[in-house]
Design goal:
Blueprint (H helix, E strand, L loop, with lengths): L3 E7 L4 H10 L6 E8 L5 H8 L4 E3 L9 H14 L4 E4 L8 H6 L4 E5 L11 H7 L4 E8 L9 E8 L6 H31 L2
Parallel strand pairs: 1-2, 1-4, 2-3, 4-5
Antiparallel strand pairs: 5-6, 6-7
Helix pairs in contact: 1-6, 5-6
Length: 198
């Protein structure tokens, strides 16, 4: 089996990136990580990736001012040079322009800390608690031009406890994210392969 070449985009410590890298170490996993990219030069996840022998680069979005597309063209160049065939957003805290989304349409997935379509955007755990929801969780979805609107690939959930805060809920959901994301990426790779078949 030839594996799809995976680019991972991060902004911080990259705990979901670590889960993907761990899964990709298995010889039968359908993706191999070829590049980790961050918009923050000091993102801890870059060092983590390098320590595992993965190429890791930063493209500092601040150097491009308000020109988001110019920033994304640099990202796109790095991904193309690495031969990336699929992208996983793993805590990448930038909203992508339609231009970039179109470059990677049907080849880019994201993990979001809510049970979409509930609570797209930020502060998801607090919003679930404030709404009195019985459960919360995480979703992996295809990236489209609308924020957190793409088709759902997989979800995982757990009950919200009476004494949960946004922080405790986030901490309890994180292990679910680490389990769900590699499974959902494998499903996404299978779908990409089906589409690519002549």
């Amino acid at each position: 089996m030839t594996r799809l070449r995976l680019g991972i985009l991060i902004s911080g410590r990259g705990s979901n990136m670590e889960a993907l890298l761990a899964a990709a170490k298995a010889p039968d996993y359908p993706a191999e990580a070829v590049l980790v990219l961050s918009n923050r030069p000091h993102a801890k996840g870059l060092e983590t990736a390098r320590n595992q022998g993965i190429e890791a680069k930063a493209v500092d979005h601040r150097q491009f001012g308000k020109n988001r597309e110019a920033f994304e063209r640099e990202l796109n160049t790095a991904l193309k040079e690495a031969g990336a065939e699929v992208i996983a957003l793993a805590g990448f805290m930038r909203i992508l322009t339609p231009w970039f989304v179109q470059q990677w349409a049907g080849r880019m997935i994201n993990i979001h800390p809510s049970l979409l379509p509930k609570y797209p955007g930020l502060d998801t755990h607090q919003r679930a608690i404030d709404a009195g929801d019985a459960e919360a969780g995480c979703t992996v979805h295809w990236v489209t031009e609308g924020v957190d609107e793409g088709a759902i690939i997989g979800q995982a959930s757990l009950p919200i406890k009476a004494d949960d805060t946004a922080d405790t809920l986030a901490a309890r959901i994180l292990p679910l994210e680490h389990q769900l994301y590699p499974e959902a990426l494998a499903k996404a790779c299978a779908e990409i392969r089906r589409r690519d078949e002549p």
